[in-house]
Amino acid sequence: MEVGEQASSLPIFGVVDFLATTNQILDYGLPMVQIIGEVSSFKINQDKFIFFDLKEEASLVNCFMMRFKLRQSITDGMKVIITGKPNLTRMGKFSITVESVKPFGQGELKKQRDLLFEKLKNEGLFDEARKRALPRLPERIGVISSTGAAGYQDFLKIINERWSGLELVVRSTLVQGDSAADEMIEALDELNQMDLDVIVMIRGGGSRDDLACFDDERLARAIDESYLPVATGIGHEIDISLADLVADFRAATPSHLAQAIVPSKKTVLDSLEHGLKYIQADLVQACDRQLDWIDQCHLEALQALFDKFDQTESRVLEMARVLKALNPQRVLERGYAIVRGIVAQQQLIEIELKDKIIAAEVKEIYDKK
CB–CB of 177/120 below 8 Å? Predict the structure, then answer.
């Protein structure tokens, strides 16, 4: 009886109800936890599901997460901090459904960044051949930045000083923290739907941790897949993020980016003035060459006309000589006579000499022997 009474005072569950009740207790008592540990048995199934263990000394906990939620490259032996929800599976296995995982500690952050760097480099995302040239003078610029930050203000000031009247389409986002990368990706997608010439990403200086969001894998891929060219001005000159390496153009700082993306109006005007002087000089030289050519053509035409005149004059003189030689009067002067009329017996004929004309009658005609 004592055993039965003791047993009857305990709750009795079916397996399904027990798992559901336990998960309810976990939902209420530990809806979300953060755990620090060392990654082991890391694997990806079907490029969708990630499984790994988080261990410390002889203890471990099973972890599961969706592939698209992994923002950094991790590997076995890396120390990380996970954020997730504890639960019992239908098979009664305790695990953590992971929402996010990040390297824990400076050494691990560097290790994770190095892994991701090699991964993206091997895929060719940093290749110079993939980078597009920025427009020489953009008219509409998409800007992704925190509008309250000093870096954005510096960029805006220099842009207006160098070339006023440009249209800036600004999307203010976080540029630091866990949700910053997602906000910048969303801004990139939105700006890519607009009629813009270029997109710039701006962030002033900060610590390595402050700039960690620009080493996010999804952000790097979003920049690489951008329809519009992307230029970055992030941190200081020594700060080079993965976003910088993937972008079409990287400037050392927001101020340098403003100087690089639009020319100085004075520089452009000076260049135009310089160019106009060259054009003017070229036009003068071209006109001089044309005038020289016209003069040369005129001289050649005159010479051709004179040559033609000389040739015609020579032919006329030659023809005159021939005509003179064929002149009947010249024949008479040489002692010959010209006979006119019908040469037949008893016909009257006229005989022209050099200085006389004789009327005669034909008496006899005989063949010449």
Answer: no
